[in-house]
Structures are given as structure tokens and as C-alpha cells.
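agent> Task received from the user: take the single chain below, predict its 3D structure, and emit C-alpha cells. No templates, no multimer pairing.
agent> Plan: (1) validate residues, (2) run structure prediction, (3) serialize to C-alpha cells, (4) report one or two observations.
agent> Step 1 OK, no nonstandard residues flagged.
tool_call: predict_structure(input=
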Amino acid sequence: MRDAKRLLASLPITLRIVADEVAVADLVALEALRTLAPELHSLLDRCSAGLTTTHEWPASREQPDLSQQVQQFVAADSRGGKIARKVIEVLFPAGGRHLGGATYTSASVGQWELDRRVAAASVLEFYLTQQLPVGVASAGEVTRVIASLGDVGEARIAFDQVDDGRLENLLERLQPLSETADPTLVAPAVEVLLEQFTRLRTGTRGFPDFGSEFAVTRPVLRLLRRVPQEEVFDLSARLVTSTRTLFAAFELVTIVGHRENAGHKLVSEGQALSLEQQLQERVINAPPSDLARECHIMRILLHVLQPAEGATEPVLPALSDPAVAAALFRDGLATGASQTIGSPLTRYSFDLHWDILVRLFGGEAALSEAAIAVESSLREVEEEPDEELTRALELTQQYLGGWRPQSFGRYYD
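)
tool_result: status=success, residues=413
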């Protein structure tokens, strides 16, 4: 009875601090561990990586001391490991593989995070520190977004309340839900998810990160697979015209269509062609002010308008607008990163997607005129170009002068 009273005395305080972020059942279990086996509870922080890290391939990439941490946790149990093993079995299944249990991969982490289980490293970290890791959305934010997905207006409000730095994590935590969502939620959920592209980070964090766009495209794909083909087409046809950005429309057409190595064939070939024509018409008629604000404008123009090799005319008349040309130069800048083993410094390299830019502008002469127009426009308004545009314009002049890189890029520390 004394142990029960001690547990009940500690729970209200802990519940007030972390209950929104940690599943109540897990919270009660960990507080019971604090009361009955404090020697094990004190090791949670030190052994957290071993207890929560899932198995990835290749295994050689994993930290070598993960198994040692789990063994240390079990060895600290004064009851011969009985309690420790049960804690791992119930609360930390990822660590069980070091004791001969089942193996879990990162595919399980999303569901653990969605369920606020301490099996996920981010949830356990919050329990231990009462602070969310950088870039991690709160459980309250995730819950509000999930509850709002059936209504476009409410969903927009819920997403707007999430800081851009936490948005990608929130989207990733929606992955399990997107596989089981009620089909009636698909249309409003897809519409609002497509609007999040413009808020995501650009570039990659290095291998195996393939960019933040997958945080949107994966749940959209899974949601669309939950409805019949005709519903997919009708929804896509509406959003290609009405979605807030061309890039969102472009990604949607790519997902549902038949483009090689990109499309998932959720609509028929004829329907895919109809969507492509609809998107092409929207791109051609887009005002220059809209084009200048688009992210990934180079990708949109290349795939939607498909300029021929050796084209002698700009792919769009709007490229004569300096703001649109500047956006294309920025997007044509390719950035790479490398790091010497043992060195903390990252070296960034920059180059241009030159051949693509030449095709889109309709030849090197037209490209040169566009670069001059951009620089002249900046001088007229007495505005300094941003760092990306500066590098792109510098590289443009070098290419126009005949320079070509021996290998990728110009390096900067």
C-alpha cells in the first residue's frame, strides 16, 4: 500500500507536465518504475538510444554500443533482470532485438509517435526533459490537425498554428493515419496538404534524406489510394485548377499520372493526359507575378512545357519579365555539400543546371539577355541581389564566357 500511495502522490504532478505529449499508460508505467525500481529509471536517459533505436540497413551504420546499453539496463535490475526485461518488452520494443526479441524498423516509429508512446525516441526525450526536441511538433498540434482534416477551413487554421520548423515532423507523423483514414476525409485532407509545399525547407540534409517534399507527397499518395479512380480524377481535375500554387498542381498530376519513374497510375492514361493538358494551360496563362513566386519553377517549366533540344524561343513569353527570369536563375543553381572525414567543416559547392536553363530560355543568347535584364532591373530599384541570385548570375557569366567545370561546382567553406 505504501508503494501505491507513493505512485499516486507523484502522478498528478507528472500528468500536469507531460500528459499531453506522453500516452497515459506509458506515463503510469514509467512513474511506477521510478517508484519501484529507481535504479532502472535513472538509467533511462543514459540507455535511451539502445532502448529506442530501430534496426536499419546496413546494420554497420548503427551505433556500436546500442546492445551494451540494453545489457547495462538489464544488469542494473536488482531482481535478476525480470523487471527490466518486462519494461523493454512493453515500453521499448525496439530495444528488445538486443535480447533476442522481434526486430522493428523506422516504419514503426511514426505510429509510436502518433500514439505518443515512449518507444519513440522523441517522446521518451520529452518525458525525461519536459522539452520537445528541436523541430518536433507537439502532440497537441498533431491532434488538432488530425481532428480538423475533414474540413478545409479548420485544417488550414490548424496547420497555420504549426511553426514552419516543426511542420515536416508533423507531416511525417501523419503517415500512419494516411493509410487508414476514412475515405470521406481524402478530398479536404489532400487539398490542405498540397498547400504545405511552400512552407517546407529546401535542399537535403544529406544521404539518405531525399528532400522535404516527400513529407507531403507520401501522405497524399496514400490518401488517394483509399478512393476509387474516378474520385481521384475528379478531385485532381478540380485541384489542378484551384490549388494555390503551380508546384502543388504539378506534384499532384505527377503522383496520379503515368510519367515514367514518377507517376503511380491512379488514373487512366487518358485521364492523366487530360490533367497534363489542364496543368499546361494553367502554366501558360499564369501571370508573371505568380510565376516569380513559384518554388521549383525550373522543374515545372521543364516537365510541363517540355522544351525541345536546341529550342530557339523562350519556353514562355513571361521569361522576359526580370522577376520571372530571376526566379528561374535561382532555381537553376545546384548546391552540393561534402565533408572530409574527421573535419567539422562542411564544404558547399555550386553549379548551374546549364543545359536546362539554355533550353528554357531558348538558347544562350536569350539567356544572356535575360541575365542582363535581371541585373538592370536590380540596379533600377537599387536593390542588392540575394546570395543565391548573385551566385547564379556569376556562374552564368562564366558559362557564357566558355568556362565549364572539370567536376561539380565551385567550392565555398
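agent> Step 4: summary for the user.
The first strand starts at residue 333 and ends at 339.
agent> Done.
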